[in-house]
Amino acid sequence: MKWCRYKDERRTTFGIVEDDLIWEVDGSPFHEHRRTGRQHHLSSAHLDVPVIPPNFYAMGMNFQKHLDWAAGRFGTSASPPERADMGYRSPNALVPTESPIVIPGDSIGPVQYEGELVAVIGRQAKGLSRTDALNCVFGYTLGNDVSERGWQFKDRTLWRAKNSDTFKPMGPLIETDLDPDHQHISVRVNGETVSAFDTAEAIFDLSTCISRLSRYITLFPGDVIWMGTDGATEPDLKAGDLVEIENAAIGILRNRVERAAVSPGAGD
Amino acid sequence: MKWCRYKDERRTTFGIVEDDLIWEVDGSPFHEHRRTGRQHHLSSAHLDVPVIPPNFYAMGMNFQKHLDWAAGRFGTSASPPERADMGYRSPNALVPTESPIVIPGDSIGPVQYEGELVAVIGRQAKGLSRTDALNCVFGYTLGNDVSERGWQFKDRTLWRAKNSDTFKPMGPLIETDLDPDHQHISVRVNGETVSAFDTAEAIFDLSTCISRLSRYITLFPGDVIWMGTDGATEPDLKAGDLVEIENAAIGILRNRVERAAVSPGAGD
User: Fold this and answer.
1) Residue A267 confidence (pLDDT)
2) Which residues from chain B sit within 8 angstroms of residue A127, using beta carbons?
3) SS3 of A114, please?
């Protein structure tokens, strides 16, 4: 089943997608809900981010070929992490498909894409075993973990490197029926495939991540876990580029890159 | 003016506090709202966390005497950060006043308190100058940035060290009329004052933090910025301890420490 969240003239609402139609839903997929009977054409709908997460988790450093590539380009360590330690992102940075990625005017660059599978939690859960871990997942969407590499290595935290406004495209839809451990994710820049990997290559699979996270942390409906990217994340992005993250079951997350003017008082 | 958020038999709602009374409010302080005319006694109310933040920011390393103390006890650097780079915490960890702090059963310790002033954002804002920065603030509350120092220095991120469930007590109220740059914050453990500092000692004041944050990031109503702690954060906490963070205008954030049994499958 496919779920979306979209804006119409009245409000932002959830919908169930069937073929080219969106069936409007009252309520949320995580709680009580019902179809209203109203429908819209998917092709002309204004899709919003499919969920605003109460908590926003990200598995950095979760694919060996990405670590190897980063070691070569940025001189970082290629050693895999010993444990599934979670990172955080922030909802301010979320934008939906078809919404621009805006590089801040004073970015020192390079700015790069990271195509990722995203798990959306469906029910409150704590203390899950690996065997039970996926029972708390509602579905899956795609994320682009846009990263300003200059700030990533220069700042004390990842705040603006990974969480500047518009740096977290997520969407287009949530697909509920999907095996998270065997998904092909590909990235195109201006129509050319520049990245392609399978989630089977993850250092820590989703069951391991959820089991470890939920040992200390209660998961809530709508929380998201971004699973990391593999391989190189080149070419560096520039204004005008069109970035598409694709998975056969979920669809295409499509965002054009812009660059803001340097704002007064900026600089560092 | 003082605002709170509390649970009654029907729901969780905001209220305005006057003397020992809570006046129930329909709506939120950040949007349209009105007093319903219903009132409760503050002393018998079940206070909840005063706001669930859409985005949760924290200024680590923001007081020199805290850096000096940590350098002595943990061997960390005493150099102040060059810029106000934000950290993140996660709402899963929030608990209100009078709710227990639960140390995970497999904690390696030490676990410590950090008493902090917390700014609550009142309106959407971006690109604020230092001069205009405080105009977006709705009010102030208190936070206890509970930290598992063993995990803080061992893990790749601060996820469980700072964000394990119950590790972020916040409250008891929001005070809207207060000068954030001249507030005395004190901490008592089992009735004895163990920490006391003035926010005037901050390396980066709130105006600087908001101005820098809002250069890249849109602030939203309900977002919180925790401003960091000063000095030592000892003694180490143990089950049974009562931790109180106090400010004359805001009140007392009071939480008792418990320790969970070791959960099956835990260990590291």
Assistant:
1) 43
2) 263
3) coil
